[in-house]
């Protein structure tokens, strides 16, 4: 081994841009392996997501949080979903699923506000001094030996790797695209923020997120979906509040930078929701009752985007910065974990003194990107299709939505909540005893095996149709 490739006196340093769910989760994963990291956040405190923006944490994601040691705290602050029901806008029930029965041997479905989730992840960090707020990124540069991040306040941070977890308006993605030749270099290097103006970012649907006080007829622990003509509801009912999303067709497809910014005043939102007030969110409850009990709400454009380039040299983007879908059906968890595993393997090469002279070639970024891209294309396509099935966007999507909602909801939930050996986990941390027990019991459950097999075959068929579509129309 050549002595020039040996740098035992240098510990790998990772700079994370964005104090987001992706950024904080990655920080926990790195901290468990004692990897040096720094988080740079543009806001002066934890960023505030959309008002009322909640999400459902599926069992495979819970397994990872258990590995990181934060799962029990998240469970204590979350509501558990016991059943999932799908309705039509006239109140007819398509299917009701006993989620507890499906998940009796696995982690539960958890319902949590995004801001609450962020606070738990941040507060449970041992080294909060590694998080710097008020750091608006102005420029990214890299050489063969290091990456450099310049902030608006004049501060400069250097490291071996920069990970962009900075959302849809990503600074890191702009620089990655420029490095890969997808964007022209700006004459002013400090205007790299313009890099997010790329083709492919669209918005076809608008969304109104809200939180409402309890409504008679809507029981805690239940999740409701409503399929409508040109719109859909997602309603998650907690013990203290009800979290909901109304999504509806915006009238046309908006392309960046012409994606609208909506007014948040009550009169404007009243006008937007008025066509949907009589639609049902359950058999006996209309949306009007939910909206009249609203505590807060927010009107946003629902973006859809899949970037073709995720990495360049010492820069990489993860999460919403490279793939954004508004139906949170598939998550970026597996992508994030695979990347954490990739970083740890790089650290092992540092420690074993097996680092080549050209460090960026040792990060494995190209191999990692290619290993995840095809899978993410399919996840993106599934979510794109599901969004239009729920909104009955044309006869084909309506027929597919009715078919899935009436006959295959149980199989789909069972499949996507699978924490079998095929799902991702952090290689360098022990898996919990709960998970190991679940795997053993899973093998003896005939219903779950049948659900898993039937939906997997359906997804394989869908994969084949997507591949044929891409071949014919790409």
UniProtKB/TrEMBL annotation:
> Its domain of life?
Eukaryota
Keywords (A to Z) from UniProt: FAD, Flavoprotein, Membrane, Oxidoreductase, Transmembrane, Transmembrane helix
SUPFAM superfamilies from the xrefs? Answer: FAD/NAD(P)-binding domain
| Coiled-coil region | none
Is Flavoprotein given among the entry's keywords? yes
Q: What is this protein called?
A: FAD-binding domain-containing protein
What stretches pass through the bilayer? 12-31
Matches recorded under InterPro entries = FAD-bd, FAD/NAD-bd_sf, FAD_mOase_fung
Q: Which family does it belong to?
A: Belongs to the paxM FAD-dependent monooxygenase family.
Limits of the FAD-binding domain: 13-175
User: What is a GO molecular function of this protein?
Assistant: FAD binding
Which Gene3D superfamilies does the UniProt entry name for this protein? FAD/NAD(P)-binding domain (3.50.50.60)
For this protein, the record's Pfam families field holds:
FAD_binding_3
């Amino acid at each position: 081994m050549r002595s020039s490739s040996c740098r035992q006196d240098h510990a790998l340093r990772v700079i994370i841009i964005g104090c987001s769910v992706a950024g904080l989760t990655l920080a926990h994963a790195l901290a468990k392996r004692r990897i040096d990291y720094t988080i740079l956040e543009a806001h002066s405190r934890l960023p505030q997501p959309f008002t009322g923006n909640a999400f459902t944490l599926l069992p495979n994601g819970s397994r990872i949080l258990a590995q990181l040691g934060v799962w029990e705290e998240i469970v204590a602050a979350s509501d558990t979903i016991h059943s999932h029901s799908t309705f039509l806008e006239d109140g007819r029930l398509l299917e009701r699923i006993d989620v507890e029965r499906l998940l009796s041997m696995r982690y539960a479905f958890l319902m949590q506000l995004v801001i609450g989730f962020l606070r738990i992840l941040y507060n449970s960090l041992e080294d909060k001094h590694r998080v710097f707020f008020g750091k608006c990124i102005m420029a990214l540069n890299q050489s063969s030996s290091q990456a450099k991040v310049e902030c608006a306040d004049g501060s400069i941070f250097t490291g071996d790797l920069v990970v962009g977890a900075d959302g849809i308006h990503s600074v890191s993605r702009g620089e990655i695209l420029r490095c890969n030749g997808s964007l022209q270099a700006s004459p002013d290097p400090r205007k790299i923020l313009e890099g997010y103006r790329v083709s492919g970012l669209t918005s076809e649907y608008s969304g109104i997120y809200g939180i409402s006080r309890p409504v008679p007829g809507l029981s805690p622990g239940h999740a409701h979906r409503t399929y409508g003509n040109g719109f859909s509801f997602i309603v998650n009912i907690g013990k203290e509040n009800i979290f909901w999303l109304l999504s509806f067709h915006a009238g046309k497809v908006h392309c960046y930078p012409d994606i609208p910014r909506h007014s948040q005043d009550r009169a404007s939102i009243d006008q937007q929701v008025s066509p949907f007030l009589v639609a049902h969110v359950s058999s006996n409850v209309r949306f009007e009752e939910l909206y009249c009990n609203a505590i807060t709400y927010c009107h946003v454009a629902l973006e859809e985007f899949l970037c073709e380039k995720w990495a360049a040299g010492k820069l990489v983007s993860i999460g919403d910065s490279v793939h954004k879908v508004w139906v949170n059906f598939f998550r970026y968890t597996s992508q994030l974990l695979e990347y954490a595993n990739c970083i740890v393997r790089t650290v092992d090469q540092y420690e074993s003194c097996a680092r080549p002279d050209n460090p960026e070639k040792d990060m494995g970024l190209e191999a990692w990107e290619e290993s995840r891209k095809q899978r993410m294309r399919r996840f993106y396509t599934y979510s794109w299709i599901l969004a239009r099935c729920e909104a009955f966007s044309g006869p084909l999507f309506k027929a597919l939505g009715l078919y899935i909602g009436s006959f295959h909801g149980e199989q789909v939930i069972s499949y996507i909540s699978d924490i079998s050996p095929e799902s991702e986990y952090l290689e360098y941390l022990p898996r919990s005893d709960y998970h190991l027990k679940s795997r053993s019991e899973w093998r003896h459950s005939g219903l779950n095996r049948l659900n898993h097999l039937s939906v997997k075959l359906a997804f394989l068929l869908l994969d084949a149709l997507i591949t044929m579509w891409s071949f014919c129309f790409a």
